[in-house]
Amino acid sequence: MAAGWLLVFSLTLFQSLVMNHSSEGPFPSATTIKSWVDKMQEDLVTLARTASGVDQLAAIYLKNRNLYTVEANNPRQLVEIAARDIEKLLSNRSKALVRLAKEAEKYQASHQWRDEFGNNDIIYYNAKDDQNDPEKNDTESGSQRIRPVFEEDPVFRRQTSYQHAAVHIPTDIYEGSTIVLNELNWTAALDDVFKRNREEDPTLLWQVFGSATGLARYYPASPWVDKSRTPNKIDLYDVRRRPWYIQGAASPKDMLILVDASGSVSGLTLKLIRTSVIEMLETLSDDDFVNVVSFNNNAQNVSCFNHLVQANVRNKKKLKEAVYKISAKGITDYKKGFSYAFEQLLNHSVSRANCNKIIMLFTDGGEERAQEIFHKYNEDKKVSAI
Questions:
Q1: Is the pLDDT confidence value at 381 over 70?
Q2: Pairing of strands 151-153, 158-160
Q3: How far apart are CA 161 and CA 358, in angstroms?
Q4: How many CB atoms lie within 10 A of CB 338?
Q5: What are the DSSP calls for 266-296, one per residue?
Q6: Alpha-helical segments (H) within the chain
Q7: Which end of the chain has fewer CB atoms at under 10 Å, N or C?
Q8: What does the pLDDT look like over 57-110, one tens digit per residue?
């Protein structure tokens, strides 16, 4: 605390000296200013040494020389060792991932679809089951719940079971539906792959498989924890919205979100459009490029971005804030909206994904089709309009 006040005092003193000289006489000479700077440097060095305790630390090492040895390091050797360790680590992770992907493809291809399941045909552990509620078991037709024996794991710092994998199903998905039961059926074979991966590489932590239905199977099994601790206790997790899933399941894309901001969408419709656009932005990853444009009589960018930008956290936040400020007025001119959208998508002077090109239109409908605009800009149909 005293060191901090010393720094403030030194800076204040320097400022006051300059101001006094400026008001009472000519500006200080270079020699005078240099002497002040040298004095400040000396004070700052003293401050740093006092605050850090570097002198005391050096004295401790000198006093206890018999407890350690000083050895010269070989920088090249250290870098080579670190590089080999990192290469080995990444190689092991890659092998585990490739094995899991290949086995998942094989099991899915050989799976025979079933329209009906008998009682207890599907056995699994639902990570959201209440361990203190014995009644919540075998509640879904065609399935039987596993109750693993958990132990406190020092690595994960939570209760885990290496004998089983856990299944997480989004809240809005009915776990007794036929499609989910089929997913549970064929993904059960992945448990053995999880265990084999861990046997070959004990340093592996979580292994997760996510499907297009929203079902996630992860190993080792562990009760699901609501980290957000929301008051209503609603679990909003969906594996399909995780960045790693989105990046793996979708190709990079250039997306222009076109929002109808005419007077006809005022009120509840505009609120729904805003919410839909926000949700759409959430599905994009760092590999994608995006911008949001609103249109009525004219088309304009909703934010400060005048071209497609990378869909990273910062840029998506800026776009979301701008979307909430969209107001409804005027009439709908689809020609101007689509013309503006195509010009941005076809602008190759800025960075972009250069893969799939998409225009997402959010509107309450209209009779105008703007066919001539599509014929002009999208005759080869390389841009998808949804």
A1: no
A2: antiparallel
A3: 44
A4: 28
A5: TTHHHHHHHHHHHHHHHT--TT-EEEEEEES
A6: 2-24, 30-52, 54-63, 75-110, 178-187, 190-200, 243-249, 268-282, 313-323, 334-345, 371-377
A7: N
A8: 889 988 988 888 888 889 999 999 999 999 998 999 999 999 999 999 999 999
